[in-house]
Amino acid sequence: MGLLRVGKPMGWHEALPIVPYVKEHGIQQFLNLYNKLKDRSGDVLKWGDEIEYMIIKRDDDAKTVKLSLRAKQILENLVLSELEYWREHSNNPDAVAPDASWKPEYGRFMIEGTPFFPFEGDISYYLKCEESMAKRREIAESLLEEDESLISMTMFPLIGAIKDLVHPPVDETTHNSSHSQYLPDEVINEHPRFPTLTANIRERRGGKVCILVPLFMDTNTDPEVGQRVPWDNIEQPLSTEDLDFKMSQRSPTQFFLYSDRINVFDNTAKVLSPDDTIPPASPCQQILPSTAPMIHMDAMGFGMGCCCLQTTFQARDIVEARNVYDQLAVICPIFLALSAATPIVRGLLAETDVRWNIVSASVDDRTPKEKAYIAKSRYDSISSYIGTGPQAVQYSDLELEIDQKVYDLLVDNQVDQVLARHVAHLFVRDPLVIFTDYDKVDDEMDTDHFENIQSTNWQTVRFKPPPANSTIGWRVEFRVLEVQMSDFENAAFAVFVILLSRVIIAFDLDFYMPLSRVDMNMALAHKRDAVNCEKFVFRTNIQDKSADAIYSQLTIGEIMNGKGDEFVGLIPLVVKYLDGLTDLDAQGRNQLNQYIELLSRRASGELMTAAAYLRKTVREHPEYKQDSVVTEEIAYDLVRLADRISSKQEIPVEMFGNLLKK
Ligand code: ADP
Ligand code: MG
Ligand code: MG
């Protein structure tokens, strides 16, 4: 999240009259940028990753873990070397750059680290990624106290599950921004932007956010346990607001409960539910059966307090960026499932393995009226392709809500219809936080208002125009990956995605298939153990660009490793690409082979995903009572496990085989 400005952020009702101003200027800023930079070339490949970490406070005697609220303090130290570098740099261009760049995140317990400069072109940089990640961890850990841990887990297992969640403890928690019954506002980053964002989403939608995740039913699980405040142990019937949500929320998570009722090969992809009275807005959406046991959450912090792994790469030009964006969008669900790391939600085992839809529902600011015609949350999968070939139109089969004024303006100003639709779709959302100095932004020089809309459209992939006043090119961000506990795994995923983008370009691959199918895959990716249990619709003739798509239903193992004559597999293509590189030495190749091997064996089910391993660890814990409850001591042991895995003191063979050495 960018945009930490100097003005004061306005509350929703104060901001409301300014919304049209910001949108009008935002679109003008995009247009200026586009006209100025549409021919900008990014001649070398640059790329980088972003990793989010949590800071955990441990009590090793009591065996408890809390969220440590020291991120701000730690960040102030982390950025010292960056500030010094930029100060010195102007009079000494040879000043040594720091290893990492650090940013605040939504949680007061979170930090985000990226390489200081993006990695550049040359193949050897694939190998620098893990080194950079390890360095980042080392730097951040050096600022921790003895009883703190820096962990890269997607979701803190006890978030919303214990009353005393934070350290230092607070006497009286506040709930002004979120109104949450589970989460104190103290978990929210203290910069006014973040509590304002939280409150504005709530006020805009007209009530608390409502996040429902299917509960994992073990032999002793109480089906009501997910709808209770654990420390009160009082039954919390869902409010009318929540019930209203049940009736109108249509996000991919809910769909999978009905996946057996969908004929994926039927072109109309109708959902065949008898109790579906409201016509579904998109094929992947379905009303929840009121009887399914759910885990209830009610605050933005449950979603935006999740950590993830993202990669961004710079394309040669806008055309390449647009085309690779489309290809990677299809890959997103596959990599979401393969990187699954979120089996525990609000202290309970969930029937899902990934975070995506938790975040999606946690920032869903749609008003009741909007829910009738806007199919998705602003944090969701993409709804249109943006490539420059005919396939982008052919396979964009979802209804796309657009801001017609924005669309007309763009098309009148020579933006092609496909890109205009994409941008006009971004603009169906309102700016969530407007700062009091909003009118000090210069539309010719700045892009703040455009970025305000762009940066709060959190989709599976993001098409990033060059920032104003920079030499950066057009970029694509891959946003779905679940963060892994070790740098080795994070590097494997980040590097593979970048390699795959190279392979897509080098071999002119074509993954295009209808976006409604991609959304179905997205839904399936949420299912527990989707890697082993689900089949995903995937195009098999990916090396045949001019042909219509031929689909098959493949497991993740088959998509990654190939399936006989039917499908070549992503990994064999990456291997073929590497075989053709002349500047890769044996040691480098060996390291890349390790990454590929890890993903290959996770995909085939031979090795466990992080989610599967964490779930197994909980279920085999001596304190576990087969009731889906992750106790404080189990959570403590999980944090220690994450610590040991990240420092390579422990390398579970179920997750790593013999790939990682101490
Ligand atoms: P956001 O929050 O919008 O994702 P960040 O600044 O947090 O943006 O992350 C940007 C990512 O892009 C980092 O991984 C960084 O290394 C990478 N990056 C920075 N400059 C470039 C560039 N010119 N080309 C590609 N990637 C870049
Ligand atoms: Mg970032
Ligand atoms: Mg990012």
TrEMBL record:
The keyword Electron transport does not apply. Pathway: Sulfur metabolism; glutathione biosynthesis; glutathione from L-cysteine and L-glutamate: step 1/2. Signal peptide: none annotated. Keywords: ATP-binding, Glutathione biosynthesis, Ligase, Nucleotide-binding. GO terms for biological process: glutathione biosynthetic process. Gene3D superfamilies: 1.10.8.960, 3.30.590.50. One of its GO terms (molecular function) is glutamate-cysteine ligase activity. It is an enzyme of class 6 (ligase). SUPFAM superfamilies: Glutamine synthetase/guanido kinase. It catalyses: L-cysteine + L-glutamate + ATP = gamma-L-glutamyl-L-cysteine + ADP + phosphate + H(+). Its EC number is 6.3.2.2. The keyword Membrane does not apply. It comes from the Eukaryota. Pfam families: GCS (PF03074). InterPro entries: GCS, Gln_synth/guanido_kin_cat_dom. Belongs to the glutamate--cysteine ligase type 3 family. This is Glutamate--cysteine ligase. It comes from Acrasis kona.
